[in-house]
Amino acid sequence: VQAATEEEDAVYGIEELSGFDENQDELSGIIEEFANVSAVRLIEANAPDIAKYGLSDPTCVIRTFYDDGTEHVVTVGNTLTTGSGAYMMVDDDPNVYSMGNTKTSRLGYSALDYLDKNVIETWESYTDDDGNEVTAPTIGYLEVTGGTLEETLRIEPLTEEELSSSSSAYGSTYKIVEPFEADMRYRSDSEGNDQNAVYTTGLQQLTADSIAKLNPTEEDLTALGFDSPYCTISFERDGTEYVWTVGNDTTASDGSAAHYLMTEGKDLIYVVTDANLPWISINIDNMYSSLMLLPNINDVSAIDLMIYDQTWSFEIDAAADEDSDIVPHIDGEEVDLENYRDMYQYLLSAPAEGIYDGDEDAGTLVASFTYHYRDGGSDTVELFDLGDRTCILSINGDKQWTTRIAYVQHLQSNMEKLLNGEAPVLEY
Q: pLDDT of 169-192, one tens digit each?
């Protein structure tokens, strides 16, 4: 290890690591340990037989060079009988001393242990020019291929228009755009935190457990799985694009599950624990919001409803002023507003419970409802019975989702309640 500068705060480097980011804390640490050598205690003065301490054939020799031209040599022998620390001698001093475990622990390091293990520079919050605190980076997109995913998953942030839309409600500030379009699901844990947030917040920092290879050869890349990667993670953070490639599985220093990883632009291979790689084990069914369509009740002027070939027309008169309520009618007959609100909420709750990838022509149409909006346009939900207690849930002709036939059966009973002046029931 040698100093790369004569400044007051010296920057140290290892010649064989030139061109790579090095861990200055570790480098400074070993410099500090051996710049001022002190023994724990005297073992034997004027030792006539240093071989019994392992010092005639030392395990390690440390030479420290100083700016004034002087140098010191520390010779390290066997481990102490206590199981930690080691015997040592300094320069031409004939005495044998004991060296503490703090010093000896660093002597087992290889050059790779002095590399910076940050896969990506740690993002830190800051105050912008307007005095606002910026607490998270801007993630332009996240794209994951492989791992537990059958198709590439791409996530993008919601636009300002989508975030402020009065006809939609979002549980996350991100949306899925591939392999289908859907809102990101806000999945709360026991403490109320969003479990799906880890896929974007995890891009703020990633630290490796260790470095496996420096300047890997083609044989290394093949042996560690990079000729056929297990997973690829691509993303944009604050305008800069990154690509992480995940290779074979391995074991971290603490025995936990891990994978090899490379990042574009760095010719080295990291070992990263699986606990720090949530992208390699994504369950797509936990990623999307089950509520596909959430128009605001006040924006809807009419609803066309069909259940098992029976049809109804809802007409909803707009509120006369801010203090008034909308006035709902079914086939020209006014209905109770609170009952209509319950029915509307039930319509919104049509859940996407799975992804449909079967025959586009499969299923029998058993229910549909179309929202007509006051400012123009419409959205249509259709349900096709597949005959196995499951329905295709189609949004505007896109047969992407599945739900239970129980939703349709309960929709029918709720319509009967509404027509009889009773309150529809949301649970089923």
A: 456 789 999 998 888 887 777 777
pLDDT tens track for 154-171: 999 988 877 766 444 456
- Find all residues with CB under 8 Å of 163, minimum gap 6, and list them: 170, 173
How far apart, in whole angstroms, are the C-alpha atoms of residue 396 and residue 96? 84
3-state secondary structure of 243: strand
Coil, strand, or helix at residue 398? strand
Please count the residues of the chain.
428
Strand order of the sheet with strand 310-317?
333-334, 327-330, 310-317, 300-307, 364-373, 378-385, 390-395, 398-404, 354-355
Dihedral (CA of 162, 165, 167, 168) sign:
positive
The CA distance from 282 to 392, in Å, is: 24
Q: CA–CA distance from 200 to each of 25, 140, 147 (Å)?
A: 28, 10, 17
The model's confidence at residue 35, banded by pLDDT at 50, 70 and 90, is confident
- The C-alpha R_g of the chain, in whole angstroms, comes to 33
Answer positive or negative: Cα dihedral of 307, 410, 180, 138: positive
